[in-house]
Amino acid sequence: MTARPLLELDHVTARYGPVQALHGITLAADEGEIVAVLGANGAGKTTTLRAISNTVRRDGEIRFAGRTLGRQGPEAVARLGVAHVPEGRGTFAELSVWENLRLGAYTRRGALKDDLSRVQRYFPWLEERRSQQAGTLSGGEQQMLALARAFMQRPRLLLLDEPSLGLAPLLVTEIFRIVKDLNEQEGLTVLVVEQNAHLALQLSRAAYVLEVGRVALFGPSDELQEHESIRRSYLGY
Amino acid sequence: MVELARRLGGAPKRKSRVSTGISLPVGLFLLAAAAFLVVGSAVSSIFAQQTVAGLAQGAIFGSLALALVLIYRATEVINFAQGEMAMATTYIAYQLTLWGLSYWLAFFLTLGLAFVLGVVVQLLVIRPVQHKSVLAVVIVTIGLFILIDGLVTWKWGADLKFMPAPFGNTVYHVGQVAFSRQDVGTLLVSILSVILLWLLFQFTKLGLAMRAAALRPAAASLVGVRVNWMLAIGWGLAAVLGAVAGLMTEPTVFLQPTMMQAILLYAFAAAVLGGLESPAGAVVGGLALGVFLNLVGQYVGFATAELRLPIAFAVLLVVLLLKPTGLFGRRQVRRV
């Protein structure tokens, strides 16, 4: 018996008003692996994530952990165990660091001590900044706070949208290392959208390359990295 | 300037600093005003009496202003029907006392009913137009104003009605100064309800979720907050504050369909004075306005009762000229 993937998209389409953003995306992610979604601007990477978290109108079937995601709002998807760190990080800039983390655990009852100490393993600096207003953190710190908040959700699936956007290379490396740690040590499944194909392919086990709302290419990341012609024509490096 | 300061002072400090929204000049001004009131009250008994009466009146402005701010933060409109909702709930309390309930039983029951009313109004009337445009919501609240006014007049008539006095007519004497129990009670009840609400927002999970839903609805829904419910609960809480304001207004102006209309204008002035986005600003703005109007009425010869509202708006104008974001308004601090 082969286990079913944790996440499956089956001919998913989506549109913004008259503009069709996704023309039928079919994609799968197994439990415990990191899958990258690559492609140029406007290829539909962000929309793919938004289709999963139900923040865009979409058609086609999406199955998560054995159940079909229906028409419920994004909060219902979040409650099933999907944490979406959107473009712009979704940080509550006006609230404190601690309040941001607290919101991450919003759907769960009971004490948060365990979660906090787990979060501190990966983000030790958060403790001393807990009462700082999140909007005054640096860009890298905000991205880490967004990751920490998502982790507080105890998700089974993490949707990451362009974690490297606007950050210095050193910070990007640091953030990718943390994502890798979360994946390896906590068994977190990650679907990551990235412009930086080189980094994303190093991080992920498999990758999908999108072109104008369709899957143009799919394969194990190491194979995609090796084919020079693929790298040139699809990934631009 | 900033660049120069940075060079002189080394790296900018950014260790745990949560902005309270009060700038130094405003803080000093408020301190000076408070000191003035204390000294004045110690010197003159009439001054003390007028100050306490002003605080009581101002607490009513403040709680209605806070209701406006709550809704403004969540829905981004001024709820023009806030005063009429407060008036309607006061009539409900009146009906309950007619049916034989004691005043305080009716009071608390009314607060519960006001919450339900606020939630229902948001669900039935506001939600359907909320995503259309701000103007649509504004028009709906004006329609609500007219509707509630009509319903109340139809049910209870436009003539004055009287409720039992909540605090009686006792007058306390402290030295030379006479305080009416009515004023002290009004002040305590209003301030207490504001404090309870603040505790709810600041220290409970529900309060945090409500703030998150108001600040960033999209991001809040991604962590599992049911944003629509939070907005409805916000309207419910605003209606509760309005009910407190209405019930505390009744002993001085008595029950009539127009009882909250002037109060709503003062509350609006107080909310803008405080910065419209700031709950603390609304309350301080209300208190300041109440005291100021009372003292001006006492000591400035030409400031008759008819001039109270124009004076309130003149103050508002001056404050906004000096500080366009209001007393507690803050500029957005954000790093990108």
Structure description:
The complex is a heterodimer of chains A (237) and B (336). Chain A has nine helices and ten strands. Chain A is of the alpha/beta class. In chain A, the strands form two sheets. Chain A has a six-stranded mixed sheet, with helices on both faces. Chain A has a four-stranded antiparallel sheet with strand order 2-1-4-5, covered by helices on one side. In chain A, helix 3 packs parallel to helix 5 (139-152) and helix 5 (139-152) runs parallel beside helix 6 (169-186). The radius of gyration of chain A is 17 Å and the shape is globular. Chain B is an all-alpha fold and 336 residues long. Chain B is built from 13 helices and two strands. A two-stranded antiparallel ribbon of chain B has the order 1-2. Classes of the chains: A alpha/beta (237), B mainly alpha (336). At the A-B interface, helix 2, helix 3 and helix 5 of A face helix 8 and helix 9 of B.
Kindly list the characteristics that best describe this protein:
heterodimer; A: 237 residues; alpha/beta; 6-stranded mixed sheet; 4-stranded antiparallel sheet; 9 helices; 10 strands; 36% helix; B: 336 residues; mainly alpha; two-stranded antiparallel ribbon; 2% strand; disordered N terminus
Strand-residue proportion of chain B: under 5%
Q: Uncertain regions of chain B: pLDDT < 50 for 5+ in a row?
A: 1-19
Structural class per helix/strand content of chain A? alpha/beta
- Considering DSSP H and I runs of 4 or more, what fraction of the residues of chain A is helical? 25-40%
Strand order of the largest sheet of chain A: 6-7-8-3-9-10
